[in-house]
Design brief:
The protein is of the alpha+beta class and 373 residues long. Helices cover 23% and strands 39% of the residues. It has helices spanning 2-31, 46-52, 127-146, 152-170, 354-363; strands spanning 35-38, 41-44, 55-58, 62-76, 81-85, 90-94, 103-104, 109-114, 175-179, 184-189, 196-197, 202-207, 211-219, 231-235, 242-244, 251-255, 265-273, 283-296, 298-300, 305-307, 310-316, 321-332, 336-341, 348-352. 30% of the residues are buried.
Length: 373
């Protein structure tokens, strides 16, 4: 009899323990009510989808431009730089506050030049002859530049020569001031206060950020595709934004026709209008864009997640169900990325908030701290 009672007691404990475990499991499921995962399937409640700002789009094959990825840098455009030159012989005195990196307005005084006590004839004796020759040379170089037969550097040098000749003509033999012909930033100071200068001597360089140049260095193995390059996108190391030249009044300038003997690269340049966030002198990742190819499946780059060298996207199977789908990727233009396998026309892929779907799948808990605006 005692043995039977003991057996019944043990059975009761087991049943109670089982009930407690079952209750604990149910409680855990209730706590994770916003998310469930079954293999590659992730379930997120509709209210959580709205809160996290998860958005999707239907996959449709479309045009995708051929891409060459390379390095490059942002340079001041020769059309947005001005050289401030001396208008007379004399000793210069920089204006208060004039230093490299300082902003200056159009007509702002860079320095004064005093020729008191300096003997000599009229420094403008042959200035008009030099100006005529400089203008003729600029016209010649401008035509070559427009035909892609002269470089941006050659055009800039011709423009500087004309500016120096103009200053020499308008100078006087007693005293003068040197002013900036454009609004911008003093990018270079070429002389110091107290220096003696002659008429036409460059004193400073002022750079406007209104128009800039993107210079890309292209490996020589892409020689056959070189002529097909139309435009470009680029990314800067201090910004997550992908800049598109087509959206910045960009156009292609002269391209080099010879491979560098030292590094085996071609140079190609684009001119564009800056928005104030692109700093001259910055290095850039460049995506050169060529002829478009039709029928390509692509998604925004932020749709693709990478884990240990493998790539995936999240496909929406129903209102609250998502599938983690392995994919193979191809080219990228910085904004979108080609999907070579794993996605089909008509499927619905996550385009915004993929990171939150990933976190939900990995942790089993839908993130609570994000508020979508």
């Amino acid at each position: 009899m005692t043995t039977v009672i003991r057996c019944l007691s043990v059975a009761a404990v087991v049943v109670m323990t089982g009930c407690a475990d079952s209750h604990s499991d149910n409680k855990e499921k209730e706590e994770n009510h916003g998310h469930e995962e079954h293999g590659n399937e992730i379930v997120i409640k509709h209210e959580q989808i709205e809160k996290l700002g998860i958005k999707t789009t239907i996959v449709n094959p479309s045009e995708f431009q051929n891409v060459i990825k390379c390095g490059g840098e942002i340079l001041p455009s020769p059309l947005s730089q001005a050289v401030v030159a001396a208008k007379s012989d004399g000793i210069i005195k920089l204006s208060a506050g004039i230093n490299e990196g300082v902003e200056i307005k159009n007509g702002g005084v860079v320095c004064s030049i005093s020729s008191a006590g300096i003997s000599g004839g009229d420094p403008r004796a042959d200035a008009r002859t030099q100006l005529t020759a400089a203008k003729q040379n600029l016209e010649r170089v401008q035509k070559l530049y427009n035909s892609n037969l002269a470089t941006a550097k050659e055009l800039q040098e011709a423009q500087v020569a004309v500016e120096m000749a103009k200053n020499a003509v308008s100078g006087n033999s007693s005293s003068s001031v040197a002013v900036s012909p454009i609004s911008g930033v003093v990018s270079q100071l070429l002389v110091a206060s107290g220096s003696y200068v002659t008429t036409g001597t460059p004193i400073a360089v002022v750079t406007s950020s209104a128009r800039l140049t993107l210079k890309a260095s292209v490996p020589q193995r892409y020689f056959n595709e070189f002529a097909l390059i139309k435009t470009a996108n680029f990314k800067l190391p201090y910004s997550d934004k992908i800049f598109a030249l087509d959206e910045m009044q960009g156009h292609r300038l002269t391209a080099g026709t010879m491979v560098s003997a030292t590094n085996g690269y071609f140079d190609i340049e684009f001119s564009f209008v800056g928005d104030g966030s692109v700093a001259p002198g910055s290095y850039a990742d460049v995506y050169l864009l060529g002829n478009p190819e039709s029928g390509v499946i692509s998604v925004p780059t932020k749709s693709v997640i990478e884990e240990q060298g493998k790539y995936a996207v999240f496909v929406r199977e129903s209102k609250e169900h998502f599938e983690k789908r392995p994919v193979a990727i191809g080219r990228t233009d910085g904004k979108r990325i080609e999907i070579t396998s794993g996605l089909a026309k008509g499927e619905e892929v996550v385009t915004e908030g993929a990171v939150y779907v990933k976190l939900a799948g990995n942790s089993g808990v839908v993130p609570e701290g994000h508020h979508h605006h």
